[in-house]
Amino acid sequence: MSKLEEVQNTIKTTPGLGKRMAKYSAVGAVIAIPVPVIGPIFGALAGAAWAYSKRNKV
To answer: What is the pLDDT of residues 8-34, one digit of tens each?
Structure first.
């Protein structure tokens, strides 16, 4: 099983994780708006990564 499949499986089997990742992605994108074009993309990725890393602490 590849790392990508492992992450997808974790998101599917953890209740609420996908929703939380979407929320943090939106917040990260909004915070990064001042940086043209690339800022919101990296902000969204950082937000999703933050939510994924916190999955076991909820």
So the answer is: 787 788 777 778 888 888 888 877 877
User: How far apart, in whole angstroms, are the C-alpha atoms of residue 20 and residue 52?
Assistant: 8
Whole-number Å distance between alpha carbons of 24 and 47: 4
In which residue are the tokens 């590849």 written?
2
* Sequence-separated (6 or more) residues with CB below 8 Å from residue 45: 25, 28
Place of tokens 């990725």: 45
CA distances (Å), 49 to each of 31, 46, in order?
15, 5
Distance CA 55, CA 58 (A): 6
Cα 55–28–4 angle (5° rounding)?
A: 50
What are the φ and ψ backbone dihedral angles of 46, each rounded to 5 degrees? -65, -40
